[in-house]
Structure formats: C-alpha cells, structure tokens
Amino acid sequence: MLTDQQLRTEFPLEEGLVYLNHAAVSPWPRRAAEAVSRFAQENLHQGARAYPTWLEMETRLRQRLARLINAPNVDDIALVKNTSEALSFVAHGLPWQPGDNVVITDEEFPSNRLVWESLRRYGVEVREAKLHSEAGPEAAIIAQLDERTRLLSVSSVQFASGLRLDLPTLGRACRERATLFCVDAIQSLGAIGFDVAEAGADFVAADGHKWMLGAEGLALFYCRAELRERLTLHEFGWHMVERMGEFEHRAWQPAASARRFECGSPNLLGGCVLEASLALLEEVGSTEIERRLLRRVEHLAALLRTLPGCELITDLTPGRYAGILTFRHMGVSPQQLYEALMAAGVVCAARGGGVRFSPHFYTREEDLVMAVERVERITN
Description:
Layout: H1 4-10, E1 18-19, H2 30-46, H3 51-69, E2 77-80, H4 83-91, E3 101-105, H5 111-117, E4 125-129, H6 137-143, E5 149-155, H7 167-176, E6 180-184, H8 196-199, E7 203-207, E8 219-223, H9 268-284, H10 286-305, E9 310-312, E10 325-329, H11 334-343, E11 346-347, E12 349-351, E13 354-357, H12 365-379
Parallel strand pairs: 1-11, 3-4, 3-5, 5-6, 6-7
Antiparallel strand pairs: 2-8, 7-8, 9-10, 10-13, 12-13
C-alpha cells in the first residue's frame, strides 16, 4: 500500500492548487508522465524499433482493464477512441424495428442521449425516466420498460448530480424482460468498484481520462461475447480482422474478439498513460480507493454544511454517491462561484445548477479544507 508521502510524490500538483475536477479530466500521476517521456525518447532516438515492447504494454493494458471491470475474458475488451464511439457501436450496430424503444434517464450526459436520439429516424422511441421521482430512481427507470424496449442505457453515476444507480437491480430487471443493458461507466471506473457480471451489463463504455487518470482519446468498450456478432460493423481496416498482420492475405473476416471494433492503428501514446495509471490504481486496490474517495466526499460535505447559504445537491444517502459532490449557494450564482473558485486556484466545474467538486482517493484532506475556505471567502 502506498504511503501518503508516496502519493504526494505521484501527484506533485502546484502549491496552492486544489484539484477537484476528476469528473472532467484528471491530472496524470508521475509514473504516467514518466512512461510518456520514455515513449517519446524511444521515438526520438529509435523510431518504432521498440514497437514489440509497445505492443506488450498494450497487452498489459487490456489485461488491467479486464480486471478493472471483472470481465470474463480479456478478449471482451476493445480499446476505442472515446465513450461516444463505444456507445455508437451499440446504437448503430443493433438491428432496430419501427416501434422499438430505448430507455435512458433525464440526467444523462449528451454522449448517452444523442446517440440514442439519432435512432429516431428509424422509428425508435427514446424514453427518459425521471430520476427524482417519488418512486425512486430504479423504480422510475424500470417503469419505463415494456415489451418493445430493446435496450436500457444509463450512466453508473450521473455527471451533474453525482447520483449513483443500483446497477444490479437494473440488470436483473433487464434480464427478466430480455432487454439489453448498456452502462456508461465513465464516472465510476477508477473511482468505485465495478463488476460487469454483478451489474448484469451487456455493454460497458468509459473514457480513461477521468477517474482512471488516463489521457483523452482512449476508452474501454466491453461487449458481452455472445453479442459481438450481433452488432453490425461500420468501421473497417487492417487492425480489426482475424488474421491481423497478414497483409497479403486477401480473404478476411472480423476478429472473433472485441478487437473487431478497432479498425485501425492503436493509440499507443494514450495507452502508455492509461497502462501506467491503472498500475497505480491496482497497487492501491479498488476497495481502498473507494473507501478513501467516499471519505473525502463525506468530509467535503460536512465542511460545506457549515457554511451559511450552502446547499448540497448530491444525495449523500449511503450507496447513492461516488466521487462527485455538487452544491449551490443561495447568494452567489453557480457560474459566478465557479469562475471565482477557478480564479482562486480551485479547479472544479459548473454542473447541474451548482458547482461540482470531484476529489480523488489521493486528494489531501488539507486541500479539501482549503477549497471550502475559499468558498467561504467568495460567498461572504
């Protein structure tokens, strides 16, 4: 287990800077930056001579991602550009009929809304469940499912409110109705534990640049093995074929593994970052990361509650939150407060009618205190 001092060495943020924006784009740990530096030096001095070594790194990355979500097999993991691309593979890979419907929620990030709305031209209805209904989030979602619901797609944690959904309950409801279940896990992977089998998910998508501490431009796409051939492919190239590398072989077929979703050359630079960062997360352990992160969110909430005029938007009921804490102040608009905090060195975001704080497991307790002190100074 890494000590606090070792973690500070891994994350040497500027003095006085309070980074509470992991739900957007995370800083890299030192080991990730060093991995990129080595990669750059190899390119500078040797070109692609070390390509076989880079491919070994890519193999380790796939293995780490498979372990992160407890995938049955590393062949279930595809490395794609981003969450939107992964969701598009599902949306425009499945066969649809007029009258089919897709269920989402009314708080989804555009990536998990627009892709389904694009299906309306095929006569597919998009239904939005209201998460803040009296019945409760899961009940509201399940109530939208019927015999024509082909797929349910939800975010594991909502980007603005920070609401954490009970995925196993939703997964069971989908299985009972023979409905496919898709999870946008970008706000949970690397922050809280995730088990694809426990969730009952058929598809999982997540960029690596948030809680996984990676770079933008590289994402995980999980597709349940039995469903891979059901998704019609729309991207083709040398990398997605079964006999990859046999360039003179004219007959071809898509790879049996999830590599079928990777049409062209891999993002090895992004892979350097993500593989190194996931090594750090594995060293700490998902259980410890979740414990530390939830403790920090709870501490932030307690500090904010002491400030007159501050109201928490995120539901702090156990099991209902992850790494996001969104709040508002009665006397200062969210945009004004966000801009003032950014100017004061508190990196955060304006989301969901408030200001969104998102620490990570390594965030120092004194930085949380500093952030709230700056909120108090701005709002007084």
